[in-house]
Design brief:
126 residues; single chain; 8-stranded antiparallel beta barrel; mainly beta; 8 strands
């Protein structure tokens, strides 16, 4: 298991109302061994709002929902703003699909609750 990190370009094309304009998205996922339905780790995102620099990211506790070979589906069972002063509302229930595509690489599936402009690949950092 371990810690996995990645950086994406953000999405400057957001409407600024429902979808924020962002200039960078960094994600750190820390995972440990767990059975289906158990807490498996957490995801910390830092989503930089274009212009203001505010961090719109969320920190989520992840439960292992299902596995299919080298693909895993996680559900956020709790979620809170990464920067509590940003006034961001984070919700439970987000789903993420990660596939192990190399010894030190996880690929984020296109389906799921990830922010536009998130990294498509996470690399093991420890």
């Amino acid at each position: 298991m371990g810690t996995w990190k990645g950086t994406g370009p953000g999405s400057p094309a957001g409407d600024g109302i429902v979808n924020a304009r962002t200039s960078k998205v960094t994600v750190t996922v820390t995972l440990h061994a767990a059975d289906r339905g158990e807490i498996v780790g957490r995801q910390v995102s830092h989503v930089t709002e274009d212009g203001t620099g505010r961090d719109l990211g969320c920190t989520e506790t992840l439960s292992l929902r299902e596995t299919h070979g080298t693909t895993m589906v996680f559900e956020a069972v709790s979620s809170a703003p990464t920067d509590a002063s940003a006034g961001v509302v984070c919700v439970r229930g987000n789903l993420y699909t990660l596939a192990k595509t190399g010894a030190d690489t996880l690929t984020l599936g296109n389906e799921g609750s990830q922010t536009k402009g998130s990294p498509s690949r996470l690399t093991r950092s420890s």
